[in-house]
Amino acid sequence: MRFMLLICNNDSFRPPPALEPEVIAWVEEAKRRGARISGSRFRPVAEAKTMRIRGDERSLVDGPVVQAKERVTGYELIDCPSVEEAIELASTHPMAALGAIEIRQLWQVD
Fold first, then answer.
1. Mean pLDDT, the chain, as a whole number?
2. Is 9 strand, coil or helix?
3. CB neighbourhood size of 65 (10 A)
4. Hey, how many other C-beta atoms are within 10 angstroms of the C-beta on 78?
5. With the CA atoms of 16, 22, 26 and 32 taken in that order, what torsion angle do they form, in degrees rounded to the nearest 10?
6. What pTM does this model have?
7. In terms of Cα–Cα distance, which of 43, 53, 75, 48 is closest to 64?
8. pLDDT tens for each residue of 54-67
9. CA distance 49 to 5
10. Is the Cβ–Cβ distance between 38 and 27 less than 8 Å?
11. Mean pLDDT, residues 76-103 taken together
12. 81 CB-side CA count, 13 A
């Protein structure tokens, strides 16, 4: 089962430099377990673009879809045999202690 871990923080969050080795260690452990498919940080929300198409009209605006105090700042795509294992793996991610991690199972379309 595939899960998207959405890493969330407030707009002012800047990861401390000391966090990087912890995140690298988490990534390596997730790879060792055969669970990590991919992951990355996102560029700042100020660089986001939001597109909507309604009928024949296309609207493109600068910024995120909604105004919020917390933003999705990165993601991890993982493959785990159960939601319980996905939760356990997410709970060991260093960002869980500094923000929030939303765990979302992906629809299987295969």
1. 91
2. strand
3. 10
4. 23
5. 140
6. 0.86
7. 48
8. 999 999 988 777 66
9. 22
10. no
11. 96
12. 2
